[in-house]
Design goal:
- By secondary structure, the protein is mainly α.
- The chain has one domain: Cytochrome Bc1 Complex, Chain D, domain 2.
- The protein contains eight helices and no strands.
- Helix 2 packs across helix 6 and helix 5 packs across helix 6.
- The longest helix has 15 residues.
- The protein is globular, with a radius of gyration of 17 Å.
- The N and C termini lie far apart (63 Å).
Length: 193
């Protein structure tokens, strides 16, 4: 049985990423530079209006930094959230390849480096990509205007979910409410009696 070179390389790259923490000079490549470039184009048209050109908000949570990468353990968690909740006006409406490319761009913005391995939507491969291992905390951009700064990360970021449960949060942890938590940035809305 012969394993295709690309799959073998991906397996070795992911295994290496799991062995070496992100603080080491080695970082596994899990996407191509072309995917990240395409992802930036899609991000600019589909995401930047809320998440900002520098992925720092202010109208939606920032997509760079340790908090984002720690909120989703694996690329699968982040990918699942993006597909199920974005864009907010039509969740899941983009082509799978578009979502993959946007994920590649977000990973690149968080310090991951592109290479020869193409990122796919394969669930097993995405589950094998440990975000902390393949990314490093991206440099924090300086924001002159405090009002333009991204909102603080919340333990339960419910923005743009249209009442759907986030992939990284257990259902029993969410507060039962008749009001969807969309556009609340984790703030609980008053209940309707």
């Amino acid at each position: 049985m012969s394993i295709p070179k690309q799959k073998l390389f991906l397996g070795l790259a992911v295994a290496g990423a799991l062995v070496f923490p992100a603080t080491h000079a080695f970082a596994a490549s899990v996407f191509t530079d072309e995917q990240a470039t395409e992802g930036q184009k899609f991000y600019d048209t589909q995401c930047a209006m809320c998440h900002g050109a520098a992925l720092l908000g202010p109208d939606a949570p920032a997509l760079v930094g340790r908090e984002v990468m720690q909120n989703f353990d694996t690329a699968h968690g982040l990918f699942s959230f993006i597909v199920s909740a974005m864009p907010p006006q039509a969740p899941g409406a983009l082509d799978e390849e578009v979502y993959v490319d946007i994920l590649a761009y977000i990973l690149e913005a968080n310090g991951a480096v592109g290479g020869d391995v193409e990122l796919t939507a394969n669930e097993d491969e995405l589950r094998a990509i440990n975000l902390a291992a393949v990314t490093s905390e991206a440099p924090v951009a300086t924001v002159d205007d405090e009002a333009a700064a991204a909102p603080e990360a919340s333990a339960v970021p419910q923005a743009y979910t249209w009442g759907k449960t986030l992939p990284s949060i257990e259902p029993e942890e969410q507060e039962a409410s008749g009001v969807p938590q969309a556009y609340t940035w984790g703030t609980t809305l008053p209940s309707i009696d």
